[in-house]
């Protein structure tokens, strides 16, 4: 009787602790859950998919590789690992060879897996087999005519061919399928900017609303507004960019540039260039423009000193070489 009672109490205690852990888990973030359960394949896969959506390819590779090592027979882990390989920052040809093998395995098990089909199309595109790439893309669209990633890849292929009309059409269709896909708006903005079309500002603005804390998006918007003559708006965007990431020296450089060449306020320009150089002492453009300011102030010694710093970083920086030659010819 006592043994049965002890067993019953132990079971109740075990159940209670388990329920407590489950209840605690409900209030934990995905990152916390992965930290708590580092070998949980479902949690690793969930975070890998999140990383894929948010373009965090470094974390995608780490989680997908770990999940795949834990169970190489899991097709979801295999697929995520293959997608991580073709999205690596410093990918090698061997990464695409390996990814092609993994995509093939997934497709043998699930011939209609859209991510694997488009992954394989990406491999074909990388290898220059565009006919096969478009064949795979069209296969995916026959399965799901609204599949966003198929249109993204089509846009990328057209863009690489210099066919901006079809690239824009593909990216437009992609954002129609997914109105929150900020990268699609960024690509459209970039194409219109290249075509000297102010419509790019609208696309960069939409991307910025979707990713308000992304300094790269803020930079694109700021640069475009300046390029199309919206000086005050550009300054606001560059200030916002500096607020998002205080280590982004480009924001301070462009604020200095505007003060120097648009507002003709050399003291303010020097202040912003100095801020840029505090972050990156080797920022060539800030050093060069400081030299120009010293020239305007008649301070040839400091101008040459600033130019010397430029040429130490980049001996072939032509703008600086030209100014040094001019100054030396005056002596």
Features:
331 residues; mainly alpha; 19 helices; elongated; disordered N terminus
What's the gist of this structure?
It contains 19 helices and no strands. 78% of the residues lie in helices and 0% in strands.
Task: Characterize the structure shown.
The protein has 331 residues and is mostly helical. It contains 19 helices and no strands. The chain is elongated. The model is unreliable at 1-20 (pLDDT under 50).
Extended strand count: 0
What is the helix tally?
19
Main sheet: strands, sense, barrel:
none
Q: Approximately how much beta-strand content do the residues carry?
A: under 5%
Distance between the termini: 108 Å
The overall average pLDDT, rounded, is 90
| Low-confidence parts | 1-20
Helical content stands at over 70%
Structural class: mainly alpha
The H/E string reads HHHHHHHHHHHHHHHHHHH
Estimated radius of gyration: 27 Å
What coarse outline follows from CA principal-axis ratios? elongated
Topology, pairings included?
Layout: H1 2-25, H2 30-36, H3 41-54, H4 57-70, H5 75-86, H6 93-109, H7 114-126, H8 130-143, H9 148-160, H10 164-177, H11 182-194, H12 200-210, H13 215-227, H14 231-244, H15 249-261, H16 266-279, H17 284-296, H18 300-313, H19 318-329
Helix pairs in contact: 2-3, 3-4, 3-5, 4-5, 5-6, 5-7, 6-7, 7-8, 7-9, 8-9, 9-10, 10-11, 11-12, 12-13, 13-14, 14-15, 15-16, 15-17, 16-17, 17-18, 18-19
């Amino acid at each position: 009787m006592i043994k049965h009672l002890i067993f019953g109490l132990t079971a109740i205690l075990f159940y209670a602790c388990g329920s407590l852990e489950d209840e605690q888990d409900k209030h934990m973030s995905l990152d916390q859950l992965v930290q708590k359960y580092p070998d949980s394949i479902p949690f690793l896969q969930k975070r890998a998919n999140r990383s894929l959506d948010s373009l965090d390819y470094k974390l995608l590779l780490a989680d997908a590789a770990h999940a795949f090592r834990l169970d190489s027979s899991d097709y979801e882990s295999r697929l995520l690992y293959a997608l991580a390989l073709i999205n690596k920052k410093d990918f090698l040809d061997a990464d695409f060879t390996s990814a092609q093998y993994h995509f093939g395995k997934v497709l043998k098990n699930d011939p209609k897996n859209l991510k694997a089909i488009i992954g394989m199309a990406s491999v074909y595109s990388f290898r220059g087999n565009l006919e096969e790439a478009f064949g795979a893309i069209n296969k995916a669209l026959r399965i799901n005519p609204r599949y966003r990633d198929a249109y993204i890849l089509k846009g990328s292929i057209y863009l690489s061919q210099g066919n901006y009309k079809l690239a824009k059409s593909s990216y437009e269709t992609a954002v129609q399928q997914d109105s929150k896909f900020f990268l699609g708006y960024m690509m459209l903005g970039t194409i219109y900017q290249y075509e000297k079309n102010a419509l790019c500002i609208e696309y960069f603005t939409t991307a910025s609303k979707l990713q308000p804390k992304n300094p790269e998006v803020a930079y694109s918007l700021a640069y475009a507004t300046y390029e199309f003559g919206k000086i005050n708006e550009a300054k606001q965007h560059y200030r916002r960019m500096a607020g998002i990431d205080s280590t982004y020296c480009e924001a301070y450089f462009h604020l200095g540039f505007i003060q120097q060449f648009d507002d003709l306020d050399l003291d303010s320009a020097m202040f912003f260039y100095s801020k840029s150089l505090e972050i990156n002492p080797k920022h060539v453009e800030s050093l060069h423009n400081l030299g120009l300011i010293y020239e305007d102030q008649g301070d040839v010694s400091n101008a040459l000193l600033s130019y010397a710093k430029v040429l130490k970083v980049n001996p072939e920086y032509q703008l600086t070489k030209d100014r040094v030659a001019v100054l030396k010819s005056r002596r």
